[in-house]
């Protein structure tokens, strides 16, 4: 992966833990050590044993000499392939050159440790690393494509797919995107959802139908970035206030838009209703979900044309029986089916969101059937262990099958 540990990618953490629970030992090779104020407790043991490598060191230089002496053709053709395939992309070209030495060293370590398969999360730099390891050692690799990694820049994507043992994407929407960009990719690409732990995430004992507090509790979880669309939720909250709806709205997460969103909250006079809680551990997020009446996910397409894949927080809410209101973006409608497993509203339409929140607040009994269907959907297609088992079969056999 690019960075570890990171609060925004709990799905990677949970997948690692699920794979290990199934008896497959996992070694972690993050490209960068992420430093965050809050770390999920479950990630701490993995951090302690992860292989964090500098970009250059004496040992790394020795590994370059090792491959140049023993497999010069493999080393030089791998380097040339990365450079040729990323020409025209400043990010991928210089990024590929920057990580090549440390990845070569990692490849030597993996070979010595008997690693048999490398799986990469995100199709960008991590999969470049998997490609390099494969070229240098013959160890097969696979990768999971999520969202921005196949939207921002497709340089080298088709090359990576052509040499991968298999490719995973998290939604049918992304599968269609990949096969459109790379004809023939469908032969090795399958949809495997990230999934959530349905043994841990049990339906809540109480819900909207049992609520005695007249104050509607709204929860939004995600990085404070444009694509998450929190500004539309804040505007919808302003509309609810104008209509006399009593509510609280809690925003969980951090990011570059924090100051802008805080100013919007102040300007709308919502300082006592819309609370910014900052980054939280996964355990605390689950507690907040248990306390909430509805989860809102306002994904939008940002100015660069990027959008989310399929937010795991939506899966978690549905597993808990928490009603979900989300936008009709990317892979979200595959999970949140309007009126059946949740409520969909048009992207960038705070008025539609406010109207959906009003309806939900006024008809708590009406969400019971919807949340039960949502839970059943998660159990059927988004269970973490079932989907991790598919990955394990792929790791063992070199194909998902």
CATH class type of the largest domain: Alpha Beta
Count of discrete alpha- or pi-helical segments spanning 4 or more residues: 17
Structural class: alpha/beta
What would the average pLDDT be, to the nearest integer?
A: 92
Question: Which architecture of the largest domain per CATH?
Answer: 3-Layer(aba) Sandwich
Unreliable residue runs = none
The percent of residues in helical segments reads 40-55%
| The CATH homologous superfamily of the largest domain | Glycogen Phosphorylase B
Instruction: State Rg.
Output: 22 Å
Order the strands across the largest sheet as they lie in space: 9-8-7-10-11-12
**How is the biggest beta sheet arranged?**
6 strands, parallel
C-alpha end-to-end distance:
24 Å
Structure commentary:
The longest helix has 24 residues, at 90-113. The protein has a six-stranded parallel sheet with strand order 9-8-7-10-11-12, with helices on both faces. A four-stranded parallel sheet has the order 3-4-5-6, sandwiched between helices. The protein is an alpha/beta fold and 401 residues long. The chain has two domains: 3-195 and 383-397, Rossmann fold; 208-381, Rossmann fold (3-Layer(aba) Sandwich), CATH 3.40.50. It has 17 helices and twelve strands. The two termini are 24 Å apart. It has helices at residues 10-21, 44-49, 58-70, 72-85, 90-113, 125-137, 148-151, 157-163, 172-181, 230-242, 258-267, 282-291, 312-320, 332-335, 350-362, 367-381, 384-397, and strands at 3-4, 32-33, 117-121, 140-145, 166-169, 189-191, 216-221, 247-252, 274-278, 294-297, 324-327, 343-345.
């Amino acid at each position: 992966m690019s960075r570890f540990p990171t609060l925004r990618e709990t799905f990677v953490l949970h997948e690692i833990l699920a794979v290990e629970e199934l008896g497959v030992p996992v070694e972690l090779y993050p490209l960068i050590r992420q430093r965050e104020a809050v770390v999920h407790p479950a990630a701490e043991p993995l951090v302690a044993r992860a292989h964090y490598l500098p970009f250059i060191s004496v040992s790394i230089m020795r590994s370059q000499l090792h491959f140049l002496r023993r497999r010069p053709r493999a080393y030089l053709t791998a380097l040339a392939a990365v450079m040729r395939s990323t020409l025209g992309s400043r990010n991928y070209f210089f990024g590929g050159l920057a990580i090549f030495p440390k990845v070569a060293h990692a490849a030597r370590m993996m070979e010595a440790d008997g690693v048999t398969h490398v799986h990469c999360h995100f199709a960008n730099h991590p999969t470049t690393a998997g490609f390099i390891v494969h070229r240098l050692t013959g160890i097969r690799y696979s990768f999971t494509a999520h969202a921005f990694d196949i939207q921002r820049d497709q340089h080298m994507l088709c090359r990576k797919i052509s040499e991968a043992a298999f490719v995973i994407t998290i939604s049918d929407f992304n599968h269609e995107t990949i096969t459109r960009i790379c004809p023939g990719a469908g032969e090795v690409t399958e949809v495997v959802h990230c999934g959530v732990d349905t043994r841990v995430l049990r339906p809540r004992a109480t819900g909207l139908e049992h609520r005695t507090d007249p104050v509607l509790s709204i929860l939004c979880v995600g990085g404070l970035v444009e694509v998450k669309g929190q500004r539309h939720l804040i505007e919808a909250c302003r509309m609810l206030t104008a209509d006399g709806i009593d509510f609280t709205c809690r925003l969980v997460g951090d990011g570059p838009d924090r100051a802008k969103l805080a100013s919007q909250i102040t300007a709308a006079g919502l300082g006592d209703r819309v609370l910014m809680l900052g980054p939280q551990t996964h355990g605390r997020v689950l507690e907040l979900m248990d306390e909430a009446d509805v989860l809102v996910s306002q994904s939008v397409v940002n100015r660069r044309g990027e959008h989310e894949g399929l937010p795991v927080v939506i899966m978690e809410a549905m597993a808990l029986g928490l009603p979900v209101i989300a936008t009709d973006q990317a892979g979200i409608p595959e999970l949140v089916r309007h009126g059946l497993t949740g409520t969909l509203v048009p992207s960038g339409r705070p008025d539609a969101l406010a109207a959906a929140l009003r309806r939900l607040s006024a008809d708590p009994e009406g969400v019971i059937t919807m949340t039960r269907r949502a839970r059943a959907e998660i159990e059927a297609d988004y269970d973490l262990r079932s989907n991790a088992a598919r990955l394990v079969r792929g790791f063992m056999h070199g194909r998902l099958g």
